[in-house]
Design goal:
This protein is mostly helical. The chain contains twelve helices and two strands, in the order H-H-H-H-E-E-H-H-H-H-H-H-H-H. A hairpin with a 3-residue loop joins strand 1 and strand 2. Helix 2 crosses helix 4, helix 7 packs antiparallel against helix 8 and helix 10 runs parallel beside helix 12.
């Protein structure tokens, strides 16, 4: 088990999150698990001990464990208690799990994994979007791009527009299996952008990269759309890699 860190405080105090109580407890435990405070194979405190320590109901703790179980982080067995599952069982693309991972300092291997996934999925999605988009799709992508430019990615509104941009592209593919990935891709885009801005301002303006993707999709050019999206993803990873080198 990892040595005591900020995750200890996160586990001890579920208050002040503004969420329903079991959601707050799930958030605290999720952060502790993903950060390594609880390692795979570790057993979580029993509901009696945990609820007593935090002064919360046992039912709230049980509901929180159910949330973590649904996301693949833990499993509960009669008499054996609740244990942390191996990392390869976690639903790493769940938006909550991604948020918990970026609450602390995710390692570069995890970040590269996300970008490798994006590099596989998003260029192909952009090509399909170019082939299948209709006027409403183009309008949504254009509006998201305009909002990104207006608010910048340094703001919550700008990052929300960035998520909308990528979501609109996936929607334009008309492929239900790809559309299901929207929340995961959007969360990965958001949290990696936030991560890039922790140490300093964004190293460069990524709006032109997004504009090239939009223009290719609007023009119906699948090849250009795919290439432009691949460049966008590769440059975003390069930005983060440079921050890691500087650190």
């Amino acid at each position: 088990m990892a040595s005591p860190t900020a995750a200890d405080d996160a586990v001890r105090s579920p208050r002040g999150t503004g969420r329903r109580l079991h959601g707050a407890i799930a958030h605290k435990l999720g952060v502790a698990i993903v950060s390594g405070h609880y390692a795979p194979g570790d057993r979580l405190p029993g509901e009696v001990a945990f609820s007593g320590e935090l002064d919360v109901s046992r039912s709230a703790y049980r509901e929180a464990v159910q949330v973590l179980t649904a996301k693949g982080l833990v499993e509960s067995r009669p008499k054996a208690g609740t244990s942390v599952l191996p990392r390869n069982r976690w639903n790493l693309l769940d938006p909550d799990v991604l948020a918990w991972a970026f609450t602390g300092d995710p390692d570069m291997r995890f970040i590269r994994n996300l970008f490798e996934l994006r590099a596989i999925v998003e260029p192909a999605a952009a090509a399909l979007a170019a082939e299948r988009r209709d006027r409403s799709d183009v309008k949504l992508i254009k509006e998201a791009l305009a909002a990104m430019s207006r608010h910048t990615l340094a703001s919550d509104l700008g990052r929300a527009a960035d998520r909308d941009f990528h979501t609109a592209i996936l929607a334009a593919t008309k492929n239900d299996a790809l559309i299901v990935l929207s929340s995961s891709i959007g969360a990965a885009v958001n949290w990696t952008t936030v991560f890039k801005q922790r140490a300093r301002a964004l190293p460069r303006n990524p709006i032109p990269d997004h504009r090239r993707v939009y223009e290719a999709i609007a023009a119906g050019d699948a090849g250009d759309a795919s290439r432009a999206m691949r460049v966008l993803v590769d440059l975003a990873l390069d930005d983060i890699s440079r921050l890691g080198d500087e650190g």
